[in-house]
Specification:
Blueprint lengths: L25 H5 L4 H4 L3 E6 L6 E5 L4 E7 L4 H10 L1 H9 L12 E4 L2 E9 L7 E4 L3 E6 L5 H27 L5 E5 L6 E3 L4 E5 L7 H13 L8 H10 L3 H11 L10
Parallel strand pairs: 1-3, 5-7, 8-10
Antiparallel strand pairs: 2-3, 4-5, 6-7, 9-10
Helix pairs in contact: 5-6, 6-7, 6-8
The structure holds zinc ion.
Amino acid sequence: MAKRVKPLRAGRGRSRAGREIVPTDHDMALLAYPFDEISSKLRVTVSRRARRLALRLDPKQRVMHLVVPKRASLRLAFEFAEENRDWITDKLRTLPRPVAFKDGAVIPVFGRNRRIVVLYNSALKYTDIQLKKEEILVLTNKTDPAPRIRRFLMDEAKKRIEELAAEKATLLRRRINSIQVKDTKSRWGSCSEDGDISFSYRLIFAPAKAMDYVVAHEVAHLMHMDHSDNFWRTCENLCWDYEFGKQWMSENGYDLMRFGSL
Ligand SMILES: [Zn+2]
């Protein structure tokens, strides 16, 4: 999700910019401008490649990046951010909120919204969790069962992913060495030369076709360790719905990060 708000209006030869001294040390110079007063979620990024000032929303980190071209004046960058203060606040405010694993929360699991129902009973010996059609039913003796719920979802994700991966590997006649499912920070999946595949448990919050695509992608790497045309052809053949899955992950993948966020 990127948005160029407005081009840099005052160029170097024009108006105020002419008098501006381009700072040599951006870090030091940044201190002179109270960017965090505009928004505590504003992050200034000095970029060698950027041609113009831009505001870019990072929904995963829940921050707004102010991209400043290397030679641009920080004063103009500050003014630009200040002029767009309302826009910045609005965008950050309309980001989907994090959803904690607690009673009443609604979480999509395998493409279906389900409500967490926690029934607390101190006399219980252990926590029992069941995935129902409309609910995640949690019978527990814990006052905060969130870690148990997370563990349960990880196990469910692992079961489903292992089934899918095994099916697809069989089609390719390739062997999977190991499958790990964990809470990866930056990647939805990865595959090593030795056939060790890992996945983010957060795929459980994605539609089934999107999970299927990510599994197909990693399994296809058992055959092609690159992103060549041959790789993509194999990946597509292994997919339930390649177009949907690929597009969904690129457009909505970041949204999977907000469930059970710490
Ligand atoms: Zn890949």
